[in-house]
Amino acid sequence: MEEKDRSSQSRPPHVLIFPLPLQGHINSMIKLAELLAIAGFKLTFHNSHHNHERLVKFNNIAAHFERYPGFEFKTITDGLPLDHPRSGSWFLDMFEETMEPKMKQSLREVLVNSSPPVDCVIADGVSYSIPDIIQAGELPINGSEDMDRLITTVPGMETYLRCRDLPTFCRKLDIEDSIMKLVVKQTRKSLQADALILNTTEELDGPILSQIRTKCPRVYAVGPLHTQLNTRLNVKHGESYDHISNTLWEVDKSCIFWLNKQPNRSVIYVSFGSITSMSREQLVELWYGLLNSTTKFLLVVRPNSVIGKDGEGEDVVMELMEKSKDRGYIVNWAPQEAVLNHPAIGGFFTHNGWNSTLESVVAGVPMICWPQFADQHVNSRVVSVVWKIGLDMKDVCDRKIVEKMVNDVMVDRKEEFAKSASEMAKVTNQSVNVGGSSYSNLDCLVEDIRIMSL
Ligand code: UDP
Predict the structure, then answer these.
(1) How many CA atoms lie within 13 A of 305 on its CB side?
(2) Is the pTM higher than 0.95?
(3) pLDDT per residue over 83-96, tens digit each?
(4) Is the CB of 273 inside a 6 Å radius of any atom of ligand 1?
């Protein structure tokens, strides 16, 4: 923390927020920034040039944030040329060598030159448990052992966390693996934080939060941030108010018109977030599974997300679009929150990125989980065996299994899943109502930042 300007202690706290340059991270961080701006703080939101340009292009963010006089967007380079496609594994490939040093340097400059000085920096962190699992010798030694073996070193998860529920880079012990090294290093750094702000609720993640508190006592569970923001905007403006979108792709709203024509809870929404890609073969399996089920589908295929030989990925999408006209609708990028809250949606086929998982929980939509990497494998396990609001397809992509899971969630076990998802939505939404756990935790966070800034 920089030396404080002690002469101006009556000024509002100045918070600098710096998300990783990825859609899911920007989504939650910009909502947290707005929540702190509503509390009267001065906010500096740091984004990469590339992402800021897209936020401005596809959302009305500049005009939206003008209502908060202390809110400022600043941009820094992520180390890549603006026209770099940033697809596939670009982030992991570039992070340590290219992005981190450049971003560090430019952040340092901002911190030194900032006036008023920055009182609090909020940045992304990573999971605390991986170094413990490595130390306990619980990672699979090679890829061929029993992946259903339970991991016992993460308190609160001993009864259900299996080897196959760990992030993919943990499925084979290789401490020289670059992602493994990066995560261990970043975990060490995360442990130096004064506090953790988590986009979850005490009700959803109680046992895990207790465990995290043994490592970092100051934990603020203030999520789901998107509904917390809606509540706070309603409290402030006294009207029904939806937060602004902050998408990095152009949203295709035509799918809402298509959904308007479908019966209630009859469509499965299929989308795998902003980073995952799939092979041409996987897309074809998925598509046949959907087509062979009895359900209509809304499928998102992000540009450049299908890996095939030159142009093949795009070709297969065009072919599928042609063939599925009466059974489904395909878009490049959907208004996801609006889709999940649409009455025609009865299920979500998801990769279980954390934002998507929470958005589904809040909307009371049961899930079929097809996790790919990072925390997604843990999330899908929790969705299926702890919260019991979906099925986990983990590690396979076969048309017969897709068909069976879609029929289970949308037809055969529809009422069972709808009931548990709607109960979970109720509890989660209560946590952001005035007096709920997340609402009160945000009040504590605001107060503690004020005290920190004195
Ligand atoms: N999203 C969207 N439209 C889409 C697909 C995704 O608006 O067609 C949003 C979604 O609502 C979520 C975010 O992109 O907030 C993806 O974040 P998540 O943590 O689920 O996954 P990630 O992209 O980080 O893997």
Answers:
(1) 19
(2) no
(3) 877 776 677 777 77
(4) yes
